[in-house]
Write a structure and sequence with these properties.
The complex is a heterodimer.
Chain A lengths: L1 E6 L1 E3 L21 E3 L1 H16 L5 E8 L3 H11 L3 E6 L8 H13 L5 E5 L10 H9 L2 E12 L2 E7 L5 E7 L2 E5 L11 H7 L4 E5 L31 H15 L7
Parallel strand pairs in A: 1-4, 1-6, 4-5, 5-11, 6-10, 7-10
Antiparallel strand pairs in A: 2-3, 7-8, 8-9
Chain B lengths: L6 H27 L3 H14 L17 H14 L1 H20 L2 H13 L4 E5 L15 E5 L2 E12 L4 E9 L10 E7 L5 E6 L10 E12 L3 E2 L5 H35 L3 E2 L2 E2 L4 H29 L5 H26 L10 H9 L8 H14 L3
Helix pairs in contact in B: 1-2, 1-3, 3-4, 3-6, 3-7, 4-5, 4-6, 6-7, 6-8, 6-9, 7-8, 8-9, 8-10
The chains are: A alpha/beta, B alpha+beta.
């Protein structure tokens, strides 16, 4: 079995973000980066499957981005992935999810992967589209937002998290793409000996231009933080007064009552 | 000149930080107040399984082969959460390293994997005696060869991890007539050896979860093969190995100092007096600036000492400078942190009083800072002689 795990390196979410000089993305200077949380569940699930199958599957970890993403890939290798593919793209953030998925699918098309794991979304962009789009382009079965995973004899049983807290169970035949959600597993800490051994694992480097020729189709015009909210209004009086005042405000200052 | 950690060192730092935050920090205050040895030892076991007990130890003996810089940054991260855990990890690493440096193949294959894997919660370093602290060559514990056994008599004091250590590196006088320091040998004594008694546990100011005990040798019999290194060469071994331990303790001090200042600085951005946040006052700003500058200088000294040791260069002076400076910077940082919290800093509702208590010993153990100054000045004066 050949497994692909697609990971993204994202800024630590506790960082103080500043906009870059042209105001189209965050400034990366002084940010600490780490593996996207949902992708950690993907790596962990892939490694658990490899262990379940006696170590037979080969796990390739793939990441698109500038050279710094190698650090996140090394973590995946230390957790148990076998080899890495780094698709070099310093302007990765200007590509839309379709283009990112196209580059991944282009790589995957020649590799005969049986199963692709990835996070359900990235913590920075949060489009949640890359995984499903890869599946669509490759013609693989797909299940998203997994909170449970089991594999037996070519069939995946995926427990999915649906809207409103309901759960669904889907069965998929290989080849398939699954996207991973919080609650699926607890990612292991990489052990120190494995961190040191990961140094010797191969990371192939490929420029993005070899996988994607088209220009960016979308452009970020401007990025800005939400406007600071002023202090709230405390409505006082008896309940009837309060309701009248509230309706008054909603009618005059908002659009919520207009559709009705 | 390159001041960045390698990717592997960064990953080790991250692993230590994440583990410390998730597993050690939530327990640290409780372990400071009440004894819960099973919980303390359970975390040591997890750290061993992750490879933190033999960072600078060969993989053939179960070590991580991660080097000294990685050891330093890992110690700092662990100490930011729990100094008691950090000192145990530091001593375990030092015990592994001394066995690796001077032990026989059999001794290395027997004991190092047991510490690295967590089979032994700890190893211990038994040098200090009631009458031999800063002057360890003045020790009086003796070892005499009786047929195929060594018989040890005497006692040691302030032995870290004594109740749960699987093995003790013990120094004893083997030639009473030799000049001072020339008649001491080094032995490996297993827990439970006949005549080995773990005595009273000290009630310390800080680092409560880490047990510190007296050790008594009452006709303690150990096999002839328990001698480690050459006969009467033990004092040299102790002096050499303590240098590496100093990098560990300096890094630990740095971690405690950072924890204190991080807490106090965050507090200063929230606490309001005179109608504004106290971080707006210059008095507070200067404490923040001074403490972080000193802690950063400490980090650079530690990195230099660790780098020199890792590259096989001399590092005794640099390790002493780093240990002395880092632990004093940490104590000053803790003093300022308590000051910044005011009365709250002096209560157990906030962690800075614990940091201040935990930091105090770092200027004393692993060679008092006065001894570090002797080592540093001796090395410098040698070049002027």
């Amino acid at each position: 079995m050949k497994i692909l795990v697609c990971i993204k390196q994202v800024p630590d979410m506790e960082s103080r973000f500043k906009l870059n000089s042209d105001g189209t993305w965050y400034d990366e200077t002084d940010l600490a980066f780490r593996m996207n949380e949902y992708d950690e569940y993907a790596v962990e699930q892939a490694v658990q499957l490899k262990e379940q199958l006696g170590g037979e599957p080969e796990i390739t970890v793939l990441s698109i981005g500038p050279d710094r993403v190698v650090e996140a890939m090394k973590k995946a290798l230390a957790m148990g992935a076998d080899r890495g593919v780094h698709i070099q793209d310093p302007k990765y953030y200007q590509k839309d999810p379709w283009q990112i998925a196209s580059a991944i699918a282009r790589h995957a098309a020649s590799q005969n992967y049986d199963l692709v794991f990835t996070g359900m979304q990235s913590q920075d962009r949060g489009s949640a589209q890359v995984g499903v789009t890869v599946a669509e382009i490759l013609g693989f079965a797909c299940a998203t937002t997994l909170v449970g995973f089991s594999y037996d004899n070519g069939v995946i049983t995926a427990k999915r998290e649906l809207e409103g807290g309901t759960k669904g169970v889907a069965k998929l035949k290989l080849p398939a793409v699954v996207t991973c959600q919080l609650g699926l597993n607890t990612p292991r800490y990489p052990t120190l000996p494995n961190i040191m051994k990961a140094k010797k694992k191969e990371i192939a480097v490929q420029p993005i231009a070899e996988l994607l020729q088209e220009e960016e189709l979308t452009a970020t015009a401007r990025m800005y933080p939400p406007a600071r909210k002023g202090g709230g209004i405390v409505i006082e009086g008896d309940v009837k007064d309060q309701i009248e005042k509230l309706f008054g405000i909603l009618k005059e200052k908002t659009t919520v009552l207009r559709a009705a | 000149m390159f001041l960045e950690l390698t990717e592997e060192q960064k990953l080790i730092q991250d692993t230590a930080r994440n583990f410390a935050k998730a597993e050690l920090e939530p327990l640290a205050a409780k372990l400071d107040r009440e004894d819960d040895r099973p919980a303390f030892l359970a975390n040591l076991k997890k750290l061993a399984e992750l490879g933190f007990m033999g960072l600078n130890v060969e993989s053939a003996y179960g070590g991580s082969e991660a080097g000294v810089v990685a050891f330093s940054v890992a110690m700092t991260e662990i100490a930011r959460a729990c100094a008691s855990t950090a000192v145990t990890v530091s001593v375990n690493n030092m015990v592994c390293e001394v066995i690796q440096a001077v032990g026989s193949t059999e001794q290395k294959e027997t004991y190092i994997p047991r510490i690295c894997s967590g089979q032994y919660p700890a190893g211990a370093f038994a040098l200090t005696e009631t009458g031999a602290g800063s002057d360890p060559a003045g020790m009086t514990t003796t070892a005499e060869l009786h047929n195929d056994h060594w018989v040890l008599n005497g006692s040691k004091i302030f032995i870290t991890s004594a109740p749960y250590a699987g093995v003790f590196v013990v120094w004893a006088v083997t030639d009473k007539s030799a000049p001072k320091g020339k008649g001491i040998s080094c032995f490996l004594v297993e827990q439970g050896a006949p005549g080995l008694v773990v005595g009273k546990q000290e009630e310390k100011t800080g680092q409560h979860a880490s047990a510190t005990c007296e050790l008594i040798f009452d006709n303690c019999r150990i096999p002839r093969g328990a001698l480690m290194g050459k006969l009467n060469d033990g004092f040299r071994i102790a002096v050499a190995e303590l240098c590496g331990g100093r990098i560990g303790i300096g890094s630990l001090g740095l971690g405690v100092g950072l924890a204190a200042m991080d807490y106090a600085t965050r507090y200063a951005t929230e606490r309001v007096q005179f109608g504004q946040k106290i971080c707006n006052f210059q008095a507070i700003q200067w404490m923040i600036a001074d403490a972080y500058t000193e802690l950063e200088a400490a980090r650079l000294l530690l990195m230099q000492a660790a780098y020199r040791k890792e590259s096989g260069k001399s590092f005794a002076k640099e390790a002493s400078m780093a240990k002395m400076y880092a632990t004093e910077a940490a104590n000053r940082a803790c003093y300022s942190a308590v000051q910044m919290l005011g009365g709250y800093g002096y209560t157990k509702d906030f962690p800075v009083e614990r940091y201040a208590r935990d930091a105090r010993i770092t200027a004393i153990y692993e060679g008092t800072n006065e001894i570090q100054r002797i080592v540093i000045s001796r090395e410098i004066l040698r070049n002027f002689a």
